[in-house]
Amino acid sequence: MRIGVLTSGGDCPGLNAVIRSVVHRAVVDHGDEVIGFRDGWKGLLECDYLKLDLDAVGGILARGGTILGSSRVQPSHLRDGVERAKGHVEELGLDAIIPIGGEGTLKAARLMSDSGLPVVGVPKTIDNDIAVTDVTFGFDTAVGVATEALDRLKTTAESHQRVLVVEVMGRHTGWIALHSGMAAGAHAIVVPERPFDIEELTRRVGERFEAGKRFAIVVAAEGAKPRPGTMEFDEGGKDIYGHERFAGIARQLSVELEGRLGKEARPVILGHVQRGGTPTAYDRVLATRFGWHAVEAVHRGEFGQMTALRGTDIVMVPLAEAVETLKTVPDERYEEAETVL
Ligand code: F6P
């Protein structure tokens, strides 16, 4: 068989582990040929690719990012994008395409599959918000990075008797905020799923200082918002791909808390550091398993599906289901965290 692989959307620790696993399983075990498109769907649209053999994937397991490069370009962005991509798949004699990506990429994968292309998707996102899989690789790494940062920030916050508002990634969901906040023992967590009440947040942080504590750490997912009308708030806008460009929850919240509490507050934005660097062992294993199962699905002819983790098993789920809804933080998970803040 001849298989094409691509990584699309925001990068994520573990992408290289998937690529490596696909090549090992396909080339070594099945005698297939694998090619990798450069910079996501863009590579397929422009027929820009490289041959992936064992040498090409040597030593990449622990490397962050993606050796193939990534972009947010999708076939649907161009008028003739889908037709052009289909033409290149035919021209290159490909029996399957394995796109590795998040919400946008999986939507594009579904579109390509509906147009008749043999597609098997692999989900990735540090945000962990893809509903049909228990976990996505990259999340564990991102939570680890954020937790380490929070641990470090506690000591400097305490020295200066400050409130630190730490912004973590999570456009639509607060999984990284919830897990890193719980792991590091933050004092408040705000997530997009539950618009926060600024009065209540101020009271919670203020009570810590009244009780003699010298600092407070607030973890804020970048997409968190106040309840409408409760505080002046700039939500920001959208980028050229329709993705949110937030005006900055950490900056706005630290100004607000400083004003209300009369305590020094500072914003800290962790940003892309959460996406960079080497994946954790957990993410490497999950990514490797996803790659292995994607190749197996190709050989079984199970197209229009994607790999997913259910419990400890890897299963295949229809791409159509994968992109229906996002996995948001349920109320109960938030309440569990609140008890120990
Ligand atoms: O991968 C998803 C994500 O991590 C979001 O949480 C974040 O908003 C976004 O990527 C930022 O990506 P970029 O700045 O690369 O567009």
From TrEMBL:
Keywords: ATP-binding, Cytoplasm, Glycolysis, Kinase, Magnesium, Metal-binding, Nucleotide-binding, Transferase
Residues where substrate binds: T125, I126, D127, R162, M169, G170, R171, E222, R266, H272, V273, Q274, R275
Boundaries of every Phosphofructokinase domain copy: 2-298
Site (Important for substrate specificity): G104
Cofactor section: Mg(2+)
Its EC number(s): 2.7.1.11
Catalytic activity: beta-D-fructose 6-phosphate + ATP = beta-D-fructose 1,6-bisphosphate + ADP + H(+)
Subcellular location: Cytoplasm
Active site location: D127 (proton acceptor)
Pathway linked to the protein: Carbohydrate degradation; glycolysis; D-glyceraldehyde 3-phosphate and glycerone phosphate from D-glucose: step 3/4
Binding positions for ATP per the UniProt entry: G10, R72, V73, G102, E103, G104, T105
Annotated binding of Mg(2+), by residue: E103
Main subcellular localisation: cytoplasm
Gene3D superfamilies tied to this protein: 3.40.50.450, Phosphofructokinase domain
Regions crossing the membrane: none
Assigned protein family: Belongs to the phosphofructokinase type A (PFKA) family. Mixed-substrate PFK group III subfamily.
Subunit structure: Homodimer or homotetramer.
Function text: Catalyzes the phosphorylation of D-fructose 6-phosphate to fructose 1,6-bisphosphate by ATP, the first committing step of glycolysis.
Protein name per its UniProtKB record: ATP-dependent 6-phosphofructokinase
Top-level taxonomy: Bacteria, Bacillati, Actinomycetota, Actinomycetes, Kitasatosporales
